[in-house]
Amino acid sequence: SILLPLRTTDAAYLRFNRGYDSKAIFNRPIFFTPAEKQSLAKIAHLLDNQEVNRLSNRQAQYLALQNQINPHFLYNTLEAIRGDALSVGMRDVASITEALATFFRYTISNMDNLVSLAEELSNAENYFAIQNYRFGDRIRMEVTIEPGSESAMDFMIPKLTLQPIIENAIIHGLEGQVGPGTVAVDIATDGSRLTIDVKDDGLGMSENVLEEIGRRLVFPEALTSRDEKHRPGGIALANVNNRIKLLFGEQYGLRVSSIKGTGTKVEIQLPVRRSADT
Predict the structure, then answer these.
(1) What pTM value is reported for the model?
(2) Spacing of C-alpha 171 from chain mean position
(3) How far apart are the C-alpha atoms of 252 and 49, rounded to whole Å?
(4) Fewest Cβ atoms nearer than 10 Å: which of 102, 156, 193, 233?
(5) Per-residue model confidence as pLDDT tens digits over 216-271
(6) Cβ neighbours of residue 237 under 8 Å, at least 6 residues apart?
């Protein structure tokens, strides 16, 4: 009753250590204590998260490579359009073409998983400039950094965290309303946690829609392509939330609040990371 379980356990560890069976130590029939079983279950969960994150990154890189065709062709074409626009005095067209090229370069070519908040904010502002051209200056974006939180601009956050949320605010909050609208980005840190609030003064959401978005944030695996096409907000918020949790843990992510006819706020909670490695 003692020796046989020990031999079984030892064989499982040998298979695991030699790479023959990556789940050998987790699928054992016998555990010596409840704490050992609980610890191994936690390790298995952490390894699964890392594997999902790795596969997600590889898939994102594959899709970017698949869709980019030849990025230099795209950049050179946009630069040619910009040059022609400048030659005939169409400075607005030249500016928006330059903004579009910069946006594509950041989105397609930069494969970094984490970027500085300053870089991410610059990309979000560039994206907003492109949208503002379409809206004819009917919308505006305001960025506020809480006094004492200036160092947050150097913190590392997942790439493409802000832009999808700002896009959501424009499309589902501001686009359908009459009159001007504002997207406000408020940044603050307490030294261990970075908080970014993205607020709009647009249409807002009903309680039912807000509950549905909350469900998507909790159960992202239940989303389908139909969600993206037919439901307000698509799956952008769920994707951003899922990436944050995979990278940093369940205590971080998004929280959404909204009042119909008043506006929506998306609160982003992130850990303080001063480099991509720490």
Answers:
(1) 0.69
(2) 18
(3) 14
(4) 193
(5) 888 765 554 444 444 445 468 888 888 888 888 889 999 999 999 999 999 999 99
(6) 164, 165, 168, 213, 216, 217, 254, 256, 266
